[in-house]
Amino acid sequence: MKHNFFYHTGRYCILITEAFKRPDRDRVFWSHLFREFKNLGVDSIGIVAIISIFMGAVVAMQTAYNIDSPLIPMTMVGFTTRQSVILEFSPTIVSLILAGKVGSRIASEIGSMRVSEQIDALKIMGVNPPNFLILPKITAAMIINPALIIISIGIALFGGWLVAALTNLVTPQDYIEGLRFWFDGYTVFYAMVKTVVFAFIITSVSGYMGYYVEGGSLEVGTNSTKAVVYSSILIIVFNLILTQILLT
Amino acid sequence: MIEAKNISKSFGDNDVLKDISASFEPGKTNLIIGQSGSGKTVLMKCLVGLFDVDKGRVEYDGRNISDMSFKQKKDIRKELGMLFQGAALFDSMTVEQNVMFPLNMFSDKSYEEKLERVNFCLDRVDLENVNRLLPSELSGGMKKRVAIARAISMNPKYLFCDEPNSGLDPRTSGLIDDLISELTEEYQMTTVVNTHDMNSVLNIGDKIAYIYKGELWWEGNKHEILKTDNKELNDFVFSTELTKRLK
Known about the structure:
Radius of gyration of chain B: 18 Å
CATH superfamily of chain B: P-loop containing nucleotide triphosphate hydrolases
Oligomer: heterodimer
Distance between the termini of chain A: 43 Å
Helix content of chain A: over 70%
Number of domains of chain B: 1
CATH architecture of chain B: 3-Layer(aba) Sandwich
Distance between the termini of chain B: 32 Å
Structural class of chain B: alpha/beta
Number of helices of chain A: 9
Structural class of chain A: mainly alpha
CATH topology of chain B: Rossmann fold
C-alpha cells in the first residue's frame, strides 16, 4: 500500500515517542548502551580516521594552491583548513559517511529482526520493542558521535600539517600559526550541536526504516538503502537550518 | 480459557476473518487448522494482540484484551508464551541468553536462580550442552525446542504455537507435538496451535477449529474429524493418499 509523507511523519513520531519511554530494566538498557558505543562508535573510528586525514590534507592543499596573491599570508592555509574542518567537513561530511555505515547497519539489523518475527517475539513477551531496540542506539550515537567528530577534527588538522611538512606549499610553522590564529570556541560548539542533531537523524530514521520493513530480505535491503538516502537528505537540510539558526 | 467473540479483521478490501467465535480450553491442546491463506495466522495474531480486531473481542479468562491499555496489555503478555513459525530466537544471543531473556526482563531472581530455571527448561525440552551455542549453530528442531524453552521460562498460562512443525521432518515434528501436548497437560496451560499438518491434528488435537475462507467452518476433536461429513473439511483432511486410507 502506498503511503504519503504525512503518514510516515506521523508513524515516525509515534515510534520515537514509544522509543523514549522509560526502559523496563535499567540494567538491560545500560548493557545495550555500552554495546552500541562499541558497534556505532568504536567500530567507526577507522573509517572516520581515514576520511579525516585525507580530507584535512586536501583542504590544506587546495587552499594553498588558491592563494595567489602575495598580500595574503600563508598562515591563511592553516586558518582556512581549521575553519573548514570544524565548521563543515568534520561534522557534516563525517556524519554523511556515518549515515552510510551506521544507518545501513541499524536498518538492516532491525529489519532482519522484523522479518524473522523477533520483534513480534519481543512484543509477545511484553517488551516495548522501539524502546528496547532503538533508544540505546539513539542515545549511544548522540553521546559517541561528538567524540568521533572531535577525533575527526584532530586527525584532519594533522592531515593538513602533513601536507605542510611533506610539500613546499606552506611551511609547518605558517600552518601551525594559522591554526592558532583567531580561534573562536563557538565554532566547536556549533559543530557539536550539528553532530548531535545528525546523530539523532541517522539513528532514528534508520531505526524507523528497519522497524517497519514489510516482506522479506529483499525489502530489508531496500529499506536499508532508503535509510541511508533519507538520513543523508535530512542531514543536508538540517545543516542549512542549523547554520541559519546558529551562525547568522 | 481464551475466547474469541465475533471477531472480524480486514486488510483494505480483503475480509480475512469474518465474525469468528471460538473458545480455547485450559489443559487442552487447541488446534486451529485450515488451508494456507484461510486466515488462521491472522486469527492467532488477533488472539495474542499483535493485530487489533476490527469487530468483536478477545477475552483471557474474562479479561477483554481488545479494550485494554498498553500497560494492561503488557501485563497480560507476561502470562503468554509463543512459539513462532521460524522460532524467532534472537540471533545475537546464545541459547542460554535467549531462554533467560524473559527472566532478565521481568523477574527479580538472582543470576543463579535464573540459570537454574534456564537449565530446567532446556532439560524439559530434552536439550543438553547447548547453553553456549548461537541459534545459527542449531538445527531446525533444536531451534523450535529452544523457542519452547523460552516460551515456558516464565510459567505462562497461555501458550501459542504458530505452525510448530513447519520445515521439520516427520519424526522431529512428532517429538515437538508430543512435547507441546505434555507441557500443556503438565502446566494446565491454554495452548493454541496453528497448523495444517494432519499428523499433528490426529496426534494432539484435543479441540480443533477448522477455518475456511476466514470463517469458522467446523469444531470438534481428533476423533470426530475422521467421521465428519463436512465437505470442505473432508477435502482438506483427506487430500493425500495417506489420509484417504485412514478414511
